[in-house]
Amino acid sequence: MRCSSGFWSSCSPAAAARELSRRRRRRSSGSLPSTTTTTTAGPAGNAKAGAALFKAKGCDGCHTFAPAGSNATTGPDLDKLAQLAQKANRGSEEAFTHESIANPSAFVESGYQNIMPNFGQLLSQQQIADLVAYLTQG
Questions:
Q1: Beta strand pairing status for 70-71 and 64-65?
Q2: For residue 71, what are the β-bridge partners?
Q3: φ, ψ dihedrals at 64, nearest 5°
Q4: CA distance 9 to 133
C-alpha cells in the first residue's frame, strides 16, 4: 500500500520510509515526475485521543459533528468534511483536514469568518494527527 503523495501522516513510519525509498529509486532511474512534493512522515493519528481533544479544545462549541454530539454553527459543519475538502480542492480529505487545523486561515469556507484559533501553534503534531484521525474516520 502506497502513501498518498501529499499527506504521509496517514502512513505508518515504516510505510513512509518504504515509499520514500521507492521514490528515490525511481528518481535515480531517470523517471522523475514532472512535479515533486517533499513531505515528511507525520505521526499516525489515534481517533479515540482525537475525540477527547475535540471536546477538550472546545471544537464542539463551534462545529456540528454528529460523532461528538455537537450542533454548533459558528464554524463549518464537519459532518460535511469530505464535501468541504472537495470544494476547497486542497488535496485529500485528510490533507485538507490537517491544513484546516494547523493553518485555518489557509482556506476559509464562504459564509464563515476567519476566527478559528491557529492550532498549528497550540497543538503538537501528534494531537493534530489524532484530530484528523477522529474527524476523517468515516
A1: antiparallel
A2: 64
A3: -80, 130
A4: 10
List, for residues 44-82, the tens digit of each pLDDT value: 999 999 999 999 999 999 999 999 999 999 999 999 999
How much is the pLDDT for 126? 97
CATH fold, domain 47-135, is Cytochrome Bc1 Complex; Chain D, domain 2 (1.10.760)
Going from N- to C-terminal start, the domains of the chain cover 1-42, 47-135
**What gap in Å lies between CA 40 and CA 13, rounded to an integer?**
10
Q: Under DSSP, is residue 65 helix (H, G, I), strand (E, B) or coil? A: strand
User: In this structure, what C-alpha cell is assigned to residue 1?
Assistant: 500500500
Q: Which residues lie below 8 Å from residue 103, measured CB to CB, with a gap of 6+?
A: 118, 120
| Whole-prediction pTM | 0.69
